[in-house]
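Pilot study result, target chain (552 residues):
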Amino acid sequence: MPQAFTPAFTPDSTPESAPESAPALKRAFGPAFKRALVTAAAALPLATSVVAGLPAPARAAGTLTNAGFETGGTGTATPAGWSVYSAAGQNGASYTEAGGHSGSYRLTHYAATAYKVETYQYLSGLADGSYTLTAWVRSSGGQNSAYLALRNCGSAEQRTDLPPTPNGAWIRLVTSVKVTGGQCTISIDSDANAGNWINVDDLSFAPGSTGLAARGVDVSTLKKSEDKGGVYRWADGSTGDALDILHSSGANYVRLKVWVNPADGYNDKARVLAMAKRAKALGMGLLIDFHYSDSWADPGKQTKPAAWSGYSLAQLKSAVYNHTYDVLNALKAQGTTADLVQIGNEINAGILWGEGSTAHWSDLAALLAQGANAAKAVSGSTRVALHLAKGGDDAGARAFFDSAVAYGVPFDLIGLSYYGYWHGPLSDLQTTLDDVAARYGKQVFVAETAYAFTLANGDALENNIATSSQLVAGYPATQAGQAANLRDVMNVVEAVPNGRGLGVFYWEPTWTAVPGNGWDPADPASGDAWENQALFDYSGRPTGAMSWLKHR
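Predicted structure:
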C-alpha cells in the first residue's frame, strides 16, 4: 500500500522550519510548498519517501505502534513504529532506554549540548471525530519547550506541555483533537538546553475528548478593591472592568465567598448578590463558597459567627440551613441561581468549631447535611461540593471522605485546594485527584490555586510567598513561571480519568495591593500579602498566566 508520510514540521508553520536542502523552494513557496510536499509524499512508497532531505517515517497505521517503546530494547535511536527528525541533525538526542513507566523501556530526549528533536508517528485510516492522546511523562524542566502535539489532523494543532518533575515521578497528560480527513500525527517535541531531558512512555490514542468545564476565578475581594481605588487594565494599558478582562481571557466561572456578618460589610449576602449579577451578565457560571463565619475559615480556624456563638447543636443546624437557603434563594430570585455550592471552606477539621469539628463526626455530618439539603431545596440542579485543603494529601482526603460517606453526608463534587509551595509536587496532586474521583465516583476540581509572578513586594506587608526558597522547583517567580504553574495544574486536572476532572479556580487574581483592602476585615490599615500572586501585575495589566484561562 502507499506509504503515508508526514514531516517533522507543521505545514502551516513558518517557512524557516522547512528543510534546508530546499532553500530556493522554501523562500519561493514557504508554507504552500510544504503543504504540497506533504500531499505528494503521502502517495510515495516507503522506498522512495525520503523527500527534501527528510528521513522516511515508519509505515502508517490506524493505531499506535510500539506505544510503550518495548520493541528494540535499550539505545534504539528510532523505535519501531516511530520516526525521528531534527533539522540540525541531532536525531541521536532521541532514543530508548531502560526504566519505563510500566514496562522495561521508555523514550528519552537528552543531549549534553543544546538540541531540537521530534519523535513522531503518523496514523491514517482513522474514523473522523474527537480523539485523545494519553501519555506518561517526566521532565527535568528548563527546556525552551517540551510538549506532546497532535498535528496534521485536519484541525488546529493541539499541544500539552510537559511539566518539570524534579522528584522523578511520572505524570499522566492528555491532549485532545478533532480528526477530519482520517489522519493525525502524534508528536513528542523537545527544544532543549544542554543537559535537559524528558521521558515519555505508555501512550494511547483513542476516540473521545477531554477538557475543563470550569476555568474559574475567585474574585471575592474585587468589589472592595474597586471601592478603594483599585485600577485594572487591558494589555494595551487602557482601563477596564477586571471581571470583563478575566472573562475575555477565558474565565467562565466566578467563585464568591460568603461571610455571615463581616466587620467591613464585604462578602455578605448583599455584596455577593451584586457580584453574581455581574458574573451572570457575562454568561459566567457561579460557585458560592460558604464559610459559615464572619471572617476567614480555613484549616487553622473555623470560628462561629458571633451571632451563633452561644447556639446549641440544634440551633446551629437550623442556622446553617437557614443561612444557606437565604443566600441561595435570594440569588435564584434575582435570576442568578448558583451552579455550584461549597458547604464550608477548607474543612479539613470540620466547620463551626467545636461542635462541628471532625472530633465529633456525627455532629459535623449533620451540619454539612443541613447546608447541602438547603442548597438542593433552592435548586435541584445546583451541585454541592465539599472542599478540603488537601490537594497533595491522598491519605488525608480519603480519611475525610470515607467518614463523610459513612455518616451519609450528601455531596456531588470534591473540591481541593492545591498550592504547590504548600501541598507538594504535581504527582501528589494527580494521585489525590485520581484516587478520590475513582473511590467516590465524583467529579473533582481544584477549588483554589495560585502562584507568584514576582518576589518583589507591592505594599508594606510581606507576601505569603516572599523568598526563592519557598518556590516550587522548576517554576521561577516570573510571569512565565506563574503561567507554567497554572498551565500544569490545569493539565493534571484535565487528565483525571473518565472525564471526572471538572476544572480549576484561580484564587484571588484581582487582589492587587490597594490601601484599605487588606487581610483583616476589621482593620482598614491591614495589608495584602497576595498581590504577587494576582493575575494583574503591579501596573494593573494582565500577567501572562491569565491567557491560560482559555485552556480547554
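One observation from the pilot: The CA atoms of residues 350 and 357 lie 4 Å apart. A full batch analysis is planned for the follow-on phase.
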